[in-house]
Task: inverse folding
C-alpha cells in the first residue's frame, strides 16, 4: 500500500497542501495524511501515518522538507520506517531522481544524505569550538550563566517571604532540586559569614 504524507507550515498555504495531495494521489497513494503545522511543532498526522503503515507499505512524500526538519530527524523517521519494514519514497529530489529506500540506489542516496548531514554538523561544531577558544584567549568568552544562578536572588527573596520550595520551583519554572541547591548554598554562605 502507498501511504502519503503532506504538510505545509501554515494555514495560509492551502494551495500548497492541495498540490501535495494531488501529487500523492497521482503517485498512487491509497491513504493520505495531511496537516498544516510547522515542522518544529508536534506533527500529529505524521505520527498517525507512521503508526498506520505496515510491513511492505511505501511511505510517500512529495519533498524531503515536507517530512523532516533536519537530517537527524529524517534518519530517525527512516529508522522507524525500516523497523516496520516500510520503504520511503520522495517524489522530488532537487534535480535528482526520486528517492526510494526500497531500492539499492535509494538506500545509497539516503546514506549519502546522512553522511553529508553528519559532516556538516561536525564542521559546524568544530567552527564553534574554534570560535569559543579564540574568544576565551581574548578574554571575551565567559560562557553562559546557568539559568538557576540568574534566578538565585529571586529564589532567596521568595523563601524569605515564606514561599515553600515546591511553590518557588513552580513559579519560576525550574526544578525543585535546583531551588534546594540555591537555598543550601545560601545557608552555607550565611554560616561561613557568621563564623
Result:
Amino acid at each position: 500500500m502507498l501511504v502519503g504524507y503532506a504538510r505545509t507550515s501554515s494555514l495560509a498555504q492551502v494551495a500548497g497542501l492541495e498540490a501535495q495531495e494531488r501529487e500523492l494521489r497521482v503517485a498512487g497513494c491509497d491513504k493520505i495524511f495531511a496537516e498544516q503545522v510547522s515542522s518544529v511543532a508536534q506533527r500529529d498526522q505524521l505520527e498517525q501515518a507512521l503508526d498506520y503503515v505496515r510491513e511492505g507499505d511505501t511511505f510517500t512524500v512529495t519533498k524531503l522538507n515536507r517530512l523532516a526538519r533536519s537530517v537527524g530527524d529524517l534518519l530517525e523517521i527512516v529508522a522507524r520506517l525500516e523497523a516496520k519494514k516500510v520503504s520511503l519514497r520522495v517524489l522530488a529530489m532537487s534535480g535528482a531522481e526520486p528517492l526510494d529506500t526500497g531500492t539499492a540506489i535509494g538506500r545509497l542516496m539516503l546514506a549519502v544524505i546522512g553522511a553529508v548531514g553528519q559532516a556538516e554538523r561536525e564542521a559546524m561544531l568544530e567552527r564553534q569550538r574554534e570560535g569559543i577558544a579564540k574568544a576565551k584567549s581574548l578574554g571575551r568568552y565567559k560562557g553562559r550563566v546557568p539559568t538557576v544562578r540568574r534566578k538565585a536572588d529571586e529564589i532567596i527573596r521568595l523563601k524569605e517571604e515564606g514561599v515553600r520550595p515546591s511553590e518557588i520551583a513552580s513559579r519560576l519554572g525550574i526544578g525543585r532540586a535546583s531551588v534546594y541547591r540555591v537555598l543550601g548554598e545560601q545557608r552555607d554562605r550565611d554560616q561561613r559569614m557568621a563564623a
About this structure: Helices lie at 14-26, 44-52, 71-83, 104-137, 147-150, 152-160, 165-172, 176-194. The chain has eight helices and five strands.
